[in-house]
Amino acid sequence: MNTHVKTELAPIPFIDVAAQRARLGTRIDDAVTRVLNHCRFVNGPEVAELESRLAAFAGARHAIACSSGTDALAMILMAWGVKPGDAVFCPSFTFCATAEVVPWVGATPVFVDVLADTFNMDPASLEAAIEVAKRKGLTPKVVIPVDLFGQPADLDAIEAIAKANGLKVLCDTAQGFGATWNGKRTGSFGDATATSFFPAKPLGCFGDGGAVFTDDDDLVPVLKSVREHGQGVDKYQNVRIGMTGRLDTIQAAILLEKLAIFEDEVAARQKVAERYNAALADVCIVPAVDPRATSVWAQYTIRVPQGGRDALGPALQKEGVPTAVYYRLPMHMQPAYEQYPSAGNGLPVCEKLAGEVISLPMHAYLDEATQDRVIAAVRRALGG
């Protein structure tokens, strides 16, 4: 009698927050308990401590914790007084939050194409977008380069273009916090930087959270005022339009514990990416990192040309390997944003990437046996 029973392998987590939770163990419990005991749930001491440690980690003079990465972007635009008639330049191949905040202040997002290898803003397309904005009677004000999937945009080129055109640089490192450009960490570039601590990010809390980084001493009190309903000398004097943008003390306490192991986790992510690249380069287009940069690998995103992407996801799902597509529709093609201007006649690289990209499981706790299972499934599906 045949006693062999076919057993199905358990599904692989796309991002394994539980493994990190297990590693931190009672450190998270103790941190939260301290907040529960002192009961300063808003603007508690952990918030100021986190801001100090984040600034030191990033190499920035100031860090201002806030309620989300989206609010971080909005706070900066509000603090700078960006207004109707102003143009803000955003890559089209990104999450909607980058451009979403621009109409909040009445300004116009102008969409920019990206580079096919790094997925980040194309400096030549930025220059073309600036000319489009001028022709439309808009005033070029801000460029928002995005550190997509974990690696910084070409800050050398973008900062030079911004300087030549009088633009402020707002770095969106929601996916790239902890990465480096020319040896300096994200958060230390441009006029200000926004990041996110959404749970799926490389450095994530247990809810929503974010931060702003800047070296501009004069900007800090304005940002803090915006974060607290536009308050002046106290919360009952309102000197500008603001928002409720605070980071909860419990989330700050959690982030302090996670920040302590963050560098180790980034190194682990790099090892996973290196193994993926080595094993998959002959069956798909693996992600490229600019030699001036390092990545925190917020996503590990491959490209499958000739229409093969859409079949890959279901094939891997059958083997318990989850995937995700970031992003199926570029911003300039989204119904809510298609009326806004773009550089040139369409953004061909964004549109091409949207039909080819697919992301594989990536986190710091992906052991080699699980990596090999992902690799084998991808190779089978792509005929490698």
Topology record:
Elements: H1 17-24, H2 26-38, H3 45-58, E1 62-66, H4 69-80, E2 86-91, H5 97-104, E3 108-112, H6 123-135, E4 139-143, H7 155-165, E5 168-172, E6 180-181, E7 184-185, E8 192-196, E9 210-214, H8 219-227, H9 249-260, H10 262-280, E10 293-294, E11 300-303, H11 309-318, H12 348-354, E12 357-360, H13 368-381
Parallel strand pairs: 2-3, 2-4, 4-5, 5-8
Antiparallel strand pairs: 1-9, 6-7, 6-10, 8-9, 11-12
What's this, in brief?
The chain is 39% helix and 13% strand.
Can you tell me about this structure?
The strands form 3 sheets. The chain has a 7-stranded mixed beta sheet with strand order 1-9-8-5-4-2-3, with helices on both faces. A 3-stranded antiparallel beta sheet has the order 7-6-10, with no helix packed on it. It has a two-stranded antiparallel ribbon with strand order 11-12. It is globular, with a radius of gyration of 22 Å. The protein has 2 domains: 20-260, Aspartate Aminotransferase, domain 2, CATH 3.40.640; 262-381, Alpha-Beta Complex (Aspartate Aminotransferase, domain 1), CATH 3.90.1150.10. By secondary structure, it is α/β, with parallel strands linked by helices. The protein has 13 helices and 12 strands. The longest helix has 19 residues, at 262-280. 39% of the residues lie in helices and 13% in strands. The modification N6-(pyridoxal phosphate)lysine is found at residue 201. InterPro entries: DegT/StrS_aminotransferase, PyrdxlP-dep_Trfase, PyrdxlP-dep_Trfase_major, PyrdxlP-dep_Trfase_small. It comes from Ancylobacter mangrovi.
